[in-house]
Amino acid sequence: MYLSSYVFGIAALASVALSQGVPVHQAKPLITKDHSQFGPQIEGTGVDAQGNVYAVNFNALKNSTGTISPKQAEFFTGNAPGSDAEKTWYNGIRFVKLSDSGSAAYLADVGNHQVVQVTKGVNGKTSVERFCGDSAILQPNDITVAHSNNRVFMSGMNYTADSKVGDGDLWTCLPGDKKAVKLGEFYRTNGIEISPDEKTLYLSESQNKGGAVVSNNILKFDLDVASGKVSNKKVFVDFGALDKTGDTDIDGMRCDAKGNLYVSRNGIGKVAKFTPDGKLDSYIQLSTIDFVGSLELGGKDGKTLHMVGRCKDDEKKGCVETFNVDTPGNAFTKLSGGNSEPVKRCDA
Description:
Helix content: under 10%
Pfam families: SGL
Protein name: SMP-30/Gluconolactonase/LRE-like region domain-containing protein
Structural class: mainly beta
Keywords: Hydrolase, Signal
GO molecular function: hydrolase activity
Largest sheet: 5 strands, mixed
Low-confidence stretches: 1-19, 339-348
Distance between the termini: 40 Å
Signal peptide: 1-19
């Protein structure tokens, strides 16, 4: 996107926000082009129980993940046994608690159409295995987890000039299943998240016509995490009707512990925050990232929103910005046991 169109778009969006009485907050750069160790495909942010925040594309490698906070460091590079190493491409990361009080990371492997589980033991050894997958899965592009049973939900897309139902999909799998189950087909799907009470699944759906993006909606489903089934599809947000940004893609989505939903607006350098009933609460403006790919709430108290994307001034690097909020993230809260006090992190 050219700078002139970017400035015009931001001005127009700010005008809409002000006319609606919706505040626009300013994020702060955390990792800039000058010291970034991530590549332009930085994506798929996730948080662990200590509030450390992770992303993919560490060292600009498709098969590598690392921490973005509290410091940049490699987490895992490689592939699961039996995977095609040439196709391994991680695009998402989520952490879960295990029954033995340990933890693991689920990685969305686009090229091998699977989710990979990475478990780091107290002995320092790392085990890697295929969690689940299916050759018919479009990617997966992004994943979310129901922390009550560690069930995974996956979304993906086939980007075409004229979208059709089937260019997006939704799949799920439960620990031990190995085989993923298809839940539905849609137009292009990407962002995916589960509400704190695990009764609602959010899924983005976008549509192209004639090579142009023409609509971006967030769908809302009733969710049964035991069976993995979704039902009662509704439109939670229609960005075309909301603020005239139906031509701007939705990417990452994350809930806080109260069920507020943060949504990245990939192309206009903004994140939108919605209340559980679908009301627009505020926007967060970024300065170093136009194409906001993903976001996650982390930090020592889980109240720092981390937003990632390729750097505006150097598209070969990945940048990160942050914004402090008043409610901790849902994933952090579930993983840390709902602790209100900061827990020990790797920088402590």
